[in-house]
Amino acid sequence: MRKMHTSAWKKYRMQKKISTTIVFILFALFNMVSSRDNMLPHHLKLNSALTCRLVGGLTREQRTLCHDLPDAAAIAFEGLQLAVKECQHQFRWHRWNCSILLSKSSNPHASAIMKRGFREAGFLYALTAAGVAHSVARACAQGRLLSCGCDPLGYRASHDPRGRAKANKWEWSGCSHNLAHGIEFSRKFLDVREKVDDLQSRINVHNNNAGRSILASHMEVRCKCHGLSGSCQLRTCWRATPDFRVVASTIKRQYRKALMVAQEELNKGMMVLKGRPRGRRRSRARPAPKSSLLFFEKSPSFCEADPRTDSAGTTGRICRIGRTTRTGSCDLLCCGRGHALIRKSSIKPCNCTFHWCCRVDCQRCRDDKWIAICK
C-alpha cells in the first residue's frame, strides 16, 4: 500500500514538473513574441497585404515594395500626408489650396493634378519626395524601422572662428538622422512611377530630385553639452533633418520662380532639361539647376470647381480685405465675383483676475468678428 502511494506521488511530481516546464516554455515564447511586437512599428501588426491594398493609386512596383518593406512603406505614407498638410498651409491663400488631395485616397499621386504639367504639380512632386525622405530619415534614427538605424557615417570636423575646418576636434557621436537611407527609399518608392522615358516623366523625376536636394541642403547640426553646470567640456553632436515647414517654404520659393520647359525640348526631347523663366519666351533656354522646379503646361485660373484639375473653386473661401496685390485678397481670390461680409460670433474668457492662491476667475465675453467670404 505504501509502495503504491510512493509511486503515485512520484508520478504526480513528474507530471507537475512537466506541466511547469511547458508553462515556462509557453510563457517564454509569449514574451519573445510580445517583445518583438513592441519593437516593431504598430503598422506591422496589421496585415501588410491589406495595408498596401487600402492605399489607392499605387503602381505594381510600388505595391511590391510595400509588401517587401511594409514598415518603411507605412512611414512613406506618413511622409505623403505630411507633404499634403504642408501644401495646404503654403497655399492657404491661393485659389488652388490642395484642399481635395486626400479626399479619395491617402496617396496624393492618385490625384488628377499630378498627371498634368502645371507649376502646382511640380511643387507637389518636389514636396512629396522631400516628405517621404524626411519621414524615413527620422524614423531610422528613432528605431521605428528594421532596415535602417542611425546614420552610419562618422564626422570629425569642427570650425574655428574664421570658418576653417579643424580635424579631430571632437566626434559627432549622437544618433544622426539617416538622410541617405531616406533619399534612397524616396527614389525607390516614387521615381519608380516614372518608368516611361518621356518628357513628362523626366520632368517629374527632376522635380522629385529637386525636393530631395532642398531637404539635404537644410540638414542641421544639433549639439548637447555635457559637463559641470553646462560648461560644455564635452559635446555630443548629430545631424538632423529640419522642421518640414522650413523645407516646404523653400520649395514654395522655387515654385514662384519655376522654369517653363523650352519649346524645343517639347519637340525634340533633348537629354538635358532646359527651361526659361515665366514671361521670358525670347530669353535663351538654359540647363535647369538641380534645385529648380520645372513645368510645361500653363496653369488654369482655378476659379471654378473642376475635378479634372483637382480645383475646388473659390466660392465660399475666406478672403482678405485690403490691397488688391496682397496674396489672398478678395479681388484676387474671388475672381471678380465679389465678396460678402459675415459676422462671426464666439464666446471667449475675458477680464480674468487671479486670486491667491491659486484660482483664476474669468468672465465670458462675446467676441464679434467680420469676415469676408467669396461669392
From TrEMBL:
Example of a GO biological process term: cell fate commitment
GO cellular component assignments: extracellular space
Gene3D superfamilies named among the record's database cross-references: 3.30.2460.20
Family matches, as InterPro entries: Wnt, Wnt_C, Wnt_CS
Keywords, in A-Z order: Developmental protein, Disulfide bond, Extracellular matrix, Lipoprotein, Secreted, Wnt signaling pathway
Segments traversing the membrane: none
Matches recorded under Pfam families: wnt
PANTHER family: PROTEIN WNT, WNT RELATED
Name used for this protein in its record: Protein Wnt
Organism: Galleria mellonella (Greater wax moth)
Gene (name only): LOC113517049
